[in-house]
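USER: Note each token:
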Amino acid sequence: MYLNSLRLFSQTSLWADSAVLLRTMALLDIAQPTNLLSALVPIQLEPSLP
């Protein structure tokens, strides 16, 4: 009984670890959204007043 429960615990912990790793890999592979209008956005300059 003890060895079966230990085996079950180790198997479920490996499943949980693999699920976390797969989720992390999927999140890292998602492309970052780019702003398509970035060339049209004006750049604000600080005024150089005396």
